[in-house]
Amino acid sequence: MWKSATPPQFHIAAVLAGIKNVFTKTNLQQSPVWDTILFFNFVTKNLLSLHMLITLTIIRYPKKNIAFALLAMAMHRLPLWLNKNISFYKLLGCGKNGTFDKNPDWQQWGILSVQPLVTNLETFTAAEVISQLYGLFINKWLSFFNCETWTIFLEPIEGHGKWDGKNPFGDIAKKASYDGMVATLTRATIRLTKLKAFWQNVPTVANEMATANGFIASFGIGETPYIKQATFSIWQSKEAMKDFAYKMHEHKEIIQKTRKGNWYSEDMFVRFKPLKTFGTIKGSNPLAGKL
Question: pTM score, two decimals?
């Protein structure tokens, strides 16, 4: 059974936020109590990030059902919005080449969600994971249209940036000591005036990543074609991912171009620890035997 009570840290954080607001409005920041409030506020924010479960489900529809895949982008918003366990979600399209791609894969789609970390993680099975995470309606929909699904459970470990002005994964550290298998989410909202420059540089990086040492798998995902784009990639270690990001000439050069040219109006870079996977995509589980 799915057991997901809101962790007590969520309630503590809400109370502290309210008290902090009162002190701010009444100019009592100089009070000795203020430092204590700031300390506990810091602690509970970090506890919140530790008790978050991030899930990414990649969905593949049969060709004959592509129209229903498009319809799902509208139909699935309400059940996800009504799901009390979900604090943040995104319905995503996918690119063809496993990274930023102007050419959509009309058969492949995704759901990303943030939920409280549950204590019975090991009891999940591939047969029930979609229903337990996203609800009965979405589970029945995907089953009826004979969809293939692959789901990965993730724990955020480090990162920076915002998504729609929010910190959906909590106040995570900018750097962490963890160096095991790592999944990376790189997303950006590209400025309209920089679209041409961005897309001219994508193919080179995509080819580089597929042949990089330590690379396992990647998925190109996005909210809005051409403009709001993301790549989710999995690496054998954080060191392997960093070697690709900062030592491969073409990729390093593009990073410098994006910063110098201010290509993005908003961006986010987050690393995760993969916890568990369910199902397959295109007939296989990219992390089979690796977790």
Answer: 0.81
Per residue, the 3-state secondary structure of the chain, as one string, reads CCCCCCCHHHHHHHHHHHHHHHHHHCCCCCCHHHHHHHHHHHHHHHHHHHCEEEEEEEEECCHHHHHHHHHHHHHCHHHHHHCCCCCEEEEEEEECCCCCCCCEEEEEEEEEEEEECCCCHHHCCCCCHHHHHHCHHHHHHHHHCCCEEEEEEEEEEEEEECECCECCCCCCCCCCCCCCCEEEEEEEEECHHHHHHHHHHHHHHHHHHHCCCCEEEEEEEEEECCCEEEEEEEECCHHHHHHHHHHCHHHHHHHHHHHHHCCEEEEEEEEEEEEEEEECECCECCCCCCC
Instruction: Map out the domains of the chain with their CATH numbers.
Output: 8-50 (no CATH), 52-279 (3.30.70.100)
pLDDT in tens, 56-101: 999 999 999 999 999 999 999 999 999 999 999 999 999 887 777 7
